């Protein structure tokens, strides 16, 4: 099912049906129809969108690991490599790293096409100029933010990990990525507002 999901969306992205960081409805519906018919399960657009967020979060973790020292990359195997000591230390500190270490990453090439272009220089960074503002969020304000600033957003959120905020950081990034004015304020007043943003996010 995962292969069908990513294969179709990769093809849709190559066809130009992902003009920004969001797939067109026709692409989502194509996945819905294919999965429903092939696997005889009930699938709707919400399921596809939720799983797409899961894949995006997995990609963020992969890129974060690859950006850290002590890890290598086997492009033939599509595998993040490390020695035993590094592996043990990484898994102890970050349990979520384990599925991506010293084993081939399934459907890596498709993930690169489907969500990889939402990354800036190897780090998660949604291009704010590409965000669809027509999302019903009346408090949202467009901001002029380039990839450099978006990467800074990634780095600042991930720095919270050192302060004990390891849980749901990818979700925090998604939240800020969908609330442009709040993300801009986060960049400007990061240190002062770190805990405020996380408390606000946890309250929904």
Tell me the strand order in the biggest sheet.
1-2
The N- to C-terminal Cα distance equals 31 Å
Helix content: 40-55%
List the total number of helices: 9
Helix-and-strand structural type: mainly alpha
Q: Find the count of extended strands (DSSP E, 2+ residues).
A: 4
The rough form would be described as: globular
Number of domains: 2
Sketch the topology as an H/E string, one letter per element.
HHHEEHHEEHHHH
- Sheet with the most strands, sense and barrel status: 2 strands, antiparallel
The percentage of residues in β strands lies in under 5%
C-alpha Rg (nearest Å): 18 Å
Q: If you average the pLDDT, what whole number results?
A: 74
Catalogue the unreliable spans: 119-148, 163-168
InterPro entries: Myb/SANT-like_dom
Organism: Gossypium raimondii (Peruvian cotton)
Domain Myb/SANT-like: 1-86
Protein name: Myb/SANT-like domain-containing protein
